[in-house]
Amino acid sequence: MGNRWTFRALFHAGVLASFALFLPTSAARAQTSVYGTVALTDFCSTVLSATTCKGDTVGLLVGGFYNFPIQSRVTVGVDGRLSQAFGRKGGTSVTGAVRVAFVPKVNPLRPYFELGGGVVSSAGTAPPVYAPRYTSGVLQLAMGLDIKLTDSFDLRAIEFGGASGGGAGTKPAAGTGYLDAGIVYHFGHR
Questions:
Q1: What's the Rg (C-alpha) of the chain?
Q2: Which of 24, 95, 169, 170 is 20 to 30 A off residue 11, Cα-Cα?
Q3: pLDDT at 127 over 70
Q4: Is 17 domain-assigned?
């Protein structure tokens, strides 16, 4: 008889908990955003423990992020991005990161930082005709400041960061550093 009452009590508690799911709440909303920036990039390669960088060149950085629905002024999400710099000094990076941002209620300033990883590919600096391309896994760190313009648009005032691979011994590695600014578009209303 004791097991029967325990089962009934659990069943009724489960039914009541199910009804609680349908009560109106002020749940936080998830946010999906995309961005495009113009960047000064510096692609580097490490061969035999010697790192050489090719100097600043103009590139493009595009990506998107998704903020999880959290009822807080601190938001947490994921960010994916592609960076491309053109010409002999150029390279490519593809990274993904965890994104943590602070979203004040009144102030339009929205600082953030990201920590993640990905892949960087950079042409070496060997002269004159053939420069080998080096590709490696990287650790990425970025921080920046977005400024709210409207409910849908932010100005990415500044972002700086880098992604570096760990070449050891004879294994070559690639890396990049960047400074960028651009526009962020948020889907839906915030």
A1: 23
A2: 24
A3: no
A4: no
In a domain, 8, yes or no: no
Tell me if 47 sits within 8 A of 124, measured CB to CB.
Answer: yes
Are the CB atoms for 95 and 78 separated by under 8 Å? no
Report pLDDT digits (tens) over 12-21: 444 444 343 3
CATH of residue 44: 2.40.160.20
Task: Please give the tally of structural domains in the chain.
Answer: 1
Residue, of 8 and 166, whose pLDDT is higher = 166
Instruction: Write out the residue range of the structural domain in which residue 114 sits.
Output: 28-186
Inside any domain, residue 18: no
The answer to whether 87 touches 93, Cβ cutoff 8 Å, is no
Measure the N-to-C terminal CA separation of the chain; round to a whole number of Å.
54
**CA distances, 35 to each of 60, 128, 136 (Å):** 11, 37, 25
Residues 108 and 56: their CA atoms lie apart, in Å, by 31
